[in-house]
Each structure stands twice: as C-alpha cells, then as structure tokens.
Write a structure and sequence with these properties.
The protein is of the alpha+beta class. The protein has two helices and nine strands. A hairpin with a 2-residue loop joins strand 7 and strand 8.
Amino acid sequence: MKNMKVYCVALVLVLAFGMSSAARVPRVRKHYLKFINNLNNKVLNVNCKNLNPYIDLNLHILLPSETYEFNYDITRSMQFSCDLRHGFTSKVFTVSDKATKRACGGNHCIWTAKEDGVYLLNRKTNQNKFMYGWGK
C-alpha cells in the first residue's frame, strides 16, 4: 500500500511537470543582419526582401562607413535575399539559409561591402571571409 502511494505521488509529479512544459509558449529566435559600406567613396544600395510572406524592407542608401541593420523572427518560411549595388555593379544573395548562418557563426551576421566583393564576418573566429564578387 505504501508503494502504491509513492507511485501515485510520482505519477502526479511527472504529469504536472510534463504538462507545464508542454503548455509553454515556444521561444522565438531572431536572426540579426548588419551591412557595412566599406567601399572607397562610393554609395552602397541595400535592398532586402522575403518572398513568402512578401516583405520588402525598401532601399537603404549607405554612404561610406555607414551601416544598416535589421532583424526578423526565424521561421521556416523566411528566406531573405539582399541586393547590394554600387554604381553599375551588383550582387543578389540569400542571407537566411543554414549555410550562411554557419558561415557567420550564429544568428548575428555582419556583411561588409568592399571594392572586390562582399565579405561575411565569422563571429567565432573574428575573420572576414570573401563570399561574393560583384556582378557586372
């Protein structure tokens, strides 16, 4: 009989803790992006979009050494791509895929536009990696 009481108490505790963890609101993770204009005396145009749901963050014009930052909630449907332009050259690339997040070392990605292309900072190693050359 004593064992039965112990089992009942244990069962109540397991059910109580199990139900409380199941009722929690899921934690929303964010992805942070930063763009830095490191071009020599050139304006950098940054325009980022998500297709589903359609979100256009509009054109941001960065003077030399200026930055632009934004963040968004990570969901399966978020697939942001960004168009970076200066003069007659441009590069469009995805910024929200898993490979990019791994390359930048987490959910805080810092992109730098330089004369020869676009670089991504790996926050774990503190090294800039050349990612894309400028298209013509």
